Protein: 6814_t:CDS:1
Organism: Paraglomus brasilianum
Amino acid sequence: MVKTIRIELTDDIQDEVNKISDESSADSKVYVLFFGTELPSTGQSWCPDCYQAYPHIRNAFDECASNATLIEAPVGTREQWKNNPSHPYKVNQRIALRKIPTLIRWTVPAGKNDRLVESECENDELLKFFLTRD
């Protein structure tokens, strides 16, 4: 079963995610999903790519990631994210977030192959491969 945890926009995201990762079981994989915060008026992300990708991501987790932790990390409002080079998730060296949605596999060292970005998060086959590879 997938355990989902939501953390709000923070400068200390790496510490928070590391703490959750440390508390997870040894064989559990930890993923972080970065997306545009939901609008109060609709309950949906202001980011159209995030809105499109979310059902694909949830379905992939439900089908493929039985022993995983999914940390949902909204990036804030459109104003907080767009054209803000000092956004805490953009300047964090490990995360170096540039586009949303982004799904990062946290349990491996940061690298080119440890994340899915934008339309990759809508690709069901790619999501399944990403969640099931060792």
